[in-house]
Amino acid sequence: MNISTLLTRHARYRADHPAVVFGNQRLNFGAFDAGVNRLANALIGIGIGKGDKVATVLPNCLELLEIYWAAAKVGVVVVPQSPLLQASGLANLLRDSDAVMVFAAQASSHTLDAIRGELPAIAEGRYVLTDGDSPGFRTYADLVSGASGEEPPAAGLTGNDPYNIIYSSGTTGDPKGIVHTHFVRAMYCALFASAWRMTPESVVLQSGAIIFNGAFLTMMPWMLVGGTYVLHKAFDAAAVIGDVEREKVTHMMSVPSQIVALLGHPDFSPQRMASLEMIMSVGAPLHLEHKQALTSALPGRFHELYGLTEGMVTILDKNDADRKMGSVGVPPPFSEIKILDRRGEEAAAGEVGEICGRGPFLMPGYYNRPALTEEAVVDGWLHSGDLGYVDEDGFLFLVDRKKDMIISGGVNVYPRDIEEIVVQHPAVRETAVFGVPHDKWGETPIAAVILNEAGAVGATGAIGVEELGEWINARVGAKFQRVHKVVVVKDFPRSAAGKTLKRFMRDDYLSGTIR
Q1: Structural domain boundaries of the chain?
Q2: Does position 432 have pLDDT exceeding 60, yes or no?
């Protein structure tokens, strides 16, 4: 079972059906398949084949969609990376993934130029720009020029072959590349198409970045059923509302900050969004007041998904949303969850513990990280590190996300990655990074620091908090790791064992005790 034949099937049996809308470009399945085939054959022509890792550093664009589906046909393992990554973080992840080719936008060309010497596996001629032209890069148009639009030779794929590597962390420290096989993605196709009630007549809108795993929650089932996929360059509330009305969109997913932006936009009205059959929230818990506002404006459409890219999922179905508003739902078919208490035993209903799960979405492992894989997956059960409980009906309720993780704009931000940078400053003795609410991003990082005596305010060589913040943000691995503010404290709240209590620090910041 693999996903390589899905597009081929639609191009054969319903070639004229609208497949992709991107700006003023509208492609039916026949045209989209031909473009994907040209790329697939071009890759084969330059020696890229089954099992090779091909990275992307791209914003939403038609070329990225073509890369995803060409990879499926050729057996290439696609490794999407964020255009927000800075040089050090990008180099680290390209090396870790064993990438032998990279597709990028013009905006990332300078970053790639700066790290070429650190990437010996990527040969000249395998740096490709999808837009513009730059010395040392091949253009996408040149790559596919002259390539056949016919179906490429079968790659001999099975469900166990890897399809992609999604990085959830690791711009510093140990990277964690989550491997998804063709079987896992086929399960995304079938089970999420069922959960969202998608049909060949469905119209899917995607306005968030398709480099993150959340995008595959609707991209895979769209391709299974052969609906229409409306892709935006980036999220813009007015554009989303306009296209929902104009394209008669039936399905869309958003992170909570985007839902809040939609609800607060002057163009929003239930009438303009009337075609929607599903709007799904993912990436972070949506606050109850926003859930209620959304379900009041658009009753019978709201779904919420809780899950880990590693492969555990629960879904709050639209028909359960009213009666289980505070829940994140139940596992889909063929999946299970359980709550483990501190003793590692299954907790009773209502008892808080660690959320664990298993099912057909489960990764085979972290790429080249067997020890981390064994730590995360024990006896076939993925241990989330998140706290929650199930009620008497088996519905899951989250108590807290991973204790230290910050979710900013739907992206997982790990404080330790930032802390490793902060403590490199000679004025800093100790640091703790924690997240606080942010109107636009959901959460944003705050860096609390204890300064060395020489770096303290008023001392010789003292550093200002704004200057320190600029220093940190120039060195973190990705833009979404930039700290919103630096606060200087004399000491941290600590447990009896000496462990820093970030929860108390966050409360102090929100109450104004520390600023």
Answers
A1: 1-12+27-150+158-180, 406-511
A2: yes
